[in-house]
Amino acid sequence: MKIAFLASNSEIAQEACATLCDSYGNVAPDQAEVIVALGGDGFMLQTLHGTLHLDAPVYGMNCGTIGFLMNEYAEPRLLERLAAAEEEVINPLRMRAISGDGEAHDALAINEVSLLRAGPQAAKLKITVDGKVRLDELVCDGALVSTPAGSTAYNYSAHGPILPIGADVLALTAVAAFRPRRWRGALLPESSEVRFDVLEARKRPVIADADSRLVTNVVSVLIRSEPQVRHRILFDPGHGLNERLIREQFN
Q1: 239 lies in which domain range?
Q2: What would you report as the CA-atom Rg of the chain, rounded to the nearest whole angstrom?
Q3: pLDDT tens-digit profile of 82-141?
Q4: Annotated catalytic sites, by residue?
Q5: Which of 8, 9, 160, 161 has the most crowded Cβ, counting Cβ within 10 A?
Q6: Both 173 and 144 in a single domain?
Q7: For the chain, percent of residues with pLDDT exceeding 90
Q8: Based on the structure, what is the number of domains in the chain?
Q9: Rounded to an integer, what distance in angstroms lies between the CA atom of residue 186 and that of residue 251?
Q10: Taking the model in full, what pTM does it have?
Q11: Using an 8 Å Cβ cutoff, are 148 and 189 in contact?
Q12: How high is the pLDDT of residue 244?
């Protein structure tokens, strides 16, 4: 099996990469049958974005902190683990953010697209879903749209719901909502197109973030699921995303 090992900059990930390359060999990502990512969830997201143009699935091994998208790190029997691994396919969100100068910024997000206040005052956002205004004004620290795969990340920290893989829904979640008081967000069909318009953008600046791809001084952000883009992730049997999402709700 042709394996491409990619590692984060952390010392533990670099040492693991050197050990595994010595044991199993290493090829360039464009020649690999499978890509093994060594690091944490942030590096896994980086790897998925960076290898999207390749056909090889990605198998993560945790050399970071949480490792929700990763498998347990172990050096022995890697070939057997890869052969037995089960594949999950996830679709990202596509963001188009318009900044104050009128420039459009496009990005994909596997976890979530978030809008966050960039100054001392709360943000004011108008929310439109499929062309219909659903909330004239949300006063908040921010808001986000999350995929099921990303629902245990920032979305969950903001008290959003955990979504099962394959549920065909997105989570729209407020971050520290002030008006309407304690607004908890909404569950939307996966096919929904969500638009945020930033009200009083100069006085209350907002940034948009798609998996750490930042756009500053945004005036509007359009978000929709992108079914044409498929990320292939490998998990050890019995430890796939659905099991992890269920387990997380009972921790």
Answers
A1: 3-90+230-248
A2: 19
A3: 999 999 999 999 999 999 999 999 999 999 999 999 999 999 999 999 999 999 999 999
A4: 41
A5: 160
A6: yes
A7: 86
A8: 2
A9: 24
A10: 0.89
A11: no
A12: 79
Q: Is 6 within 8 Å of 47 (Cβ atoms)?
A: yes
What average pLDDT does the segment 63-76 reach?
A: 88
Virtual torsion, Cα 113, 92, 129, 117, nearest 10 deg = 0
> What does the DSSP assignment read for the chain?
--EEEEE-SSHHHHHHHHHHHHHH----GGG-SEEEEEE-HHHHHHHHHHTTTS---EEEEE-SS--TT-BPP--TTHHHHHHHPEEEEE--EEEEEEETTS-EEEEEESSEEEEEE-SSSPEEEEEEETTEEEEEEEEESEEEEE-STTTTTHHHHTTPPP--TT--EEEEEEES-TBTTT---EEEETT-EEEEEEETTTTS-EEEEETTEEE-SEEEEEEEE-TT--EEEEE-TT-SHHHHHHHHTT-
Q: How much is the mean pLDDT over the chain?
A: 94
Q: What is the CATH number of the domain that holds 147?
A: 2.60.200.30
| Same domain assignment for residues 139 and 242 | no
What would the pLDDT profile of 220-238 be if each residue is shown by its tens digit? 999 999 999 999 999 999 8
Q: What CA–CA distance (Å, rounded) separates 250 from 38?
A: 27
